[in-house]
Amino acid sequence: MTPQEIRAAFIADLIGIAPDLDPAAIGDDDHLQDDLGLDSMDFLNLVSALHKRFSLPIPESDYPRLATPSKAAAYLAKMLTA
Amino acid sequence: MSLFTMPSLGADMEEGKLIEWLVKPGDHVAKGDIVAVVETQKGAIEIEIFEAGQISALLAEPGQTLPVGAPLAQIGTAQDEAPSVAPPRQEQLPQAAQPPAPSVAPVGGSGGPRPASPAARARAADLGLALETVAGSGPGGAVLLADVEAGTRLRPAPPTAPARDGGPKGRPGLDLTEMRRAIAAAMSRSKREIPHYYLSHEIALHAAQGWLAATNAARPPDRRLLMGALLVRATVRALAKVPEMNGRFDEGGFVPSATVNCGLAIALRGGGLIAPAIPDAQDLDSDTIMQRMRDLVARTRAGRLRNSEITQGTITVSSLGETGVDAMFGVIYPPQVALVGFGAPRVRPLVQDGILTPGLAVTATLAADHRVSDGRRGAVFLAEIDRLLQEPDSP
User: Fold this and answer.
1) Which part of chain B is CATH 3.30.559.10?
2) Which CATH architecture fits B187-389?
3) Which of B88, B128, B182, B387 has the most CB atoms around its CB within 10 Å?
4) Best to test chain B binding among A13, A14, A17, A20 (most B CBs inside 10 Å)
5) How far is CA B160 from CA B89, B126, B156, B163, B164, in A?
6) What digits encode the pLDDT tens for the residues B165-212?
7) CB contact under 8 A, B297 and A45
8) What distance in Å separates the CA atoms of residue B351 and residue B392, rounded to the nearest whole number?
9) What is the model's pLDDT at position B14?
10) How much is the pTM?
11) What is the third-level CATH fold of B2-177?
């Protein structure tokens, strides 16, 4: 997958768990909790969706690496090529 | 033969707007079936029916705003003869204060109603787009805001983008002014009628944290637990020891509840708060509580709560999650008589066996109704929650 495809997939899963977010208004460096208002339950639902889509384990210790769309895209790209 | 009417979804609700029918005349319904979606100050709510029968006639059109108690449908039971119902007299129906309703496509024979998030609904209405023409990518094929936006790209753009209410990243489908009014009405009533008392207690969470980390390490994400589920479960179980915290206060006084319908305060992005309940939570294990919480949060976000969930709570838990402040002192949600608040769990200096050590802890608070209980009983309640959290693996 290209970085653009990974980012698009991430945003799609983010909108899936938070359908009230406007995809056009999400910035690459928006913090999922502080800026986009995800709570811990939303975040876990997002991790579940990403786990299903990419078949990656995403342990709890890696959660900080998903803090923003740009960090998450970088993390997912790294894990997918690892 | 009986009438299905606009339900009251809270003491402060005066009217609701029928958004869609999920049944049509001739359909058989069972108790608990979801038959309609009504938009209220709390957003779109799925309305369940509380009797079995056959829909004889729909008496209201999608788009109509109707007062609580207004007839929505006629239900025939097995004994009924053919219905002989006068058609609804339009002049009796109060005129909506809003402009004419968006055209919601009727529920047709082709595949039934289309679930959609409130944001998607509102955007589609703004654009004059029938939801049935939009491919849904949400759970169960639900139409999401992004689907509506994608749908518009295939069409001529509207001359100007309609103004959104709420913040730039808020929830456009929800009228935040109305929701704020509903919250104000309920909280004013609470502060006017309920003599609150407040208690606070620090609870060490290292036992719960250790158990949680060990449990989650072996699980895929969709089976992982959150600390919030352990906090809710401990609260629900502690009520067995202090039943006077669980129930409803009505005109006749306090009525304890045999079941624990545990309300969860869920904050909405852009503002506002809804506290839907997990019914019959008293015997649920951690996994089931977690699953119910996930389901409630997901459906709150997607605008798919049911009326029983928002009207039948017997206590509320309000948790600030993992990134909030230390403690919250809540306002009881009438007619309930207690609210348990949890601040953000944080590593704090704890004294254990005379030694100062850093450890994860949370401040639990109780707001309770002095007409029903005293601080002494409230203290027993918080102490029991503490005790249960020290043994998170107990069945």
Assistant:
1) 187-389
2) 2-Layer Sandwich (3.30)
3) B182
4) A20
5) 38, 11, 11, 9, 12
6) 433 344 445 677 888 888 888 899 999 999 999 999 999 999 999 999
7) yes
8) 21
9) 79
10) 0.72
11) OB fold (Dihydrolipoamide Acetyltransferase, E2P) (2.40.50)
